[in-house]
Amino acid sequence: MKHMTMFAATAAFAAFAVHADTVTPSVSGVSLSQDSATRAVTINYTLADAPAIITLDITTNGVSIGQQNVWAIDGDANKVIQPGSRSMVWHPDKSWPNQKFDDSDGIQIGATVTAWSENDPPMYLAADLVSGDVKYYTCAEAVPGGVQDILYKTTTLLMRRIYARGKSFMMGSPKDEPGRWYSDARETQHEVSFSHDYYMGVYEVTQQQWAQIMSAWPSLHENDACKATRPVENISWEQIRGKSTFYPAAPHSDSFLALLRAKTGNALSFDLPGIAQWEYAAKAGNGDYKWGDGSALNSSLVGANTSDKEDAGYNSIGRNAYNNAMGEYSPNSSALQTPETKADVDVTCGTAAVGSYRQNSWGLYDMHGNVYEPCQDAYGDDNTNPYLEEPATSSNAKRTRKGGSFQRGPFRHRASYQLSWDGKATQDTGIRVALTLD
């Protein structure tokens, strides 16, 4: 097999470690060559000092070709790698087709190999629910197939890093926010500061993802044509985390979160988010905005209210009571309210496939509507405000839900809204997974 030697960029960069006492990994000896028949490019490198998550960028004449063209990589990349002599293979025929580069073109191709400390990982985490492999990607463009690929709605859990460490935001809502109960102490505005970054699921956990871990399909919205990518619902706190198990105690061994941890080798402590983590992610860091994430497309939501059923901005961000084929929602309606009878609804009724509506400005889908998402925190009343950066440890029987559901209108979909949950299975409550970093 003939190999063509290419220009090798020997510069490799290590990401800054979060903790000062952490040993920073280093990369050296970067070289690359291309197989003239297959166009596959082999990159060799040496990792020293500490295990690291390795990522790759390809350049031509010193300019990156873009992460969207570098995702097809085999070997020692996009995962935790142990120190030593390592190699990976980039397949341009898959991720950068119809491009020609060789010495005769006068194009110099280079490779930048980056070592990320384990406690300072890249932006996206993808946990394969079949193999248990965990991979990391530097940005949305680097995610193989793109974040909307069906893979991340069926057999792989995709999470986005929220850079919150050392940052503060205004949690809660102003008293004049449309839909807010004026005297609701649960939404009293106050500043929250974070000491940790964390990952949040890009999507709510889907029915097929739940089945991959639990070998069960409990959801009520189970039309065979569209159920796989709809959010899982009709699940209890006991199934999610285990009866009477609350942070910081580990989830019960037969719960979804415990089995998810075990599937990935117990190296990552997947859990539910705290309410401050959830709200910060939903608002995309913009605590001053009255309704959601502060993006331009969200501007109409400032005036969203329970009678504004045709608001295009509101209807664009998630499945709600006014944009599904069940018809106009009535709080006293019996439609889809009977969990004893599984509802064989079509794709336009009830819940929607995750990712059907636009993402917020941090790339998270369905933060407003579809199904409620439980948090770790105990539910507070007008006199007890459970706002904490870290999840609450209280064994209070009621937990907090966020995000609204397909059955409800605007005021329950506001980022600051809280609703109690007794932990019993219901068709309007699912799960979004979080992971707090050290």
- DSSP strand (E) fraction? 15-25%
Poorly predicted tracts of residues: 1-8, 10-18, 296-300, 302-307, 327-344, 381-388
CATH class of the largest domain: Alpha Beta
CATH topology of the largest domain, which one?
A: paralog of FGE (formylglycine-generating enzyme)
* β-strand number: 20
CATH architecture of the largest domain: Alpha-Beta Complex
Write the layout of secondary structure elements.
Blueprint: E1 3-5, E2 13-14, E3 26-35, E4 41-48, E5 52-60, E6 63-64, E7 73-75, E8 80-81, E9 84-90, H1 92-95, E10 109-116, E11 124-128, E12 134-137, E13 156-162, E14 168-171, E15 190-193, E16 198-201, H2 207-214, H3 237-240, H4 256-263, H5 275-282, H6 312-315, E17 373-378, E18 399-402, H7 410-413, E19 419-421, E20 434-436
Parallel strand pairs: 2-10
Antiparallel strand pairs: 1-3, 3-4, 4-9, 5-6, 5-8, 5-10, 7-9, 11-12, 11-13, 13-16, 14-15, 16-20, 17-18, 18-19
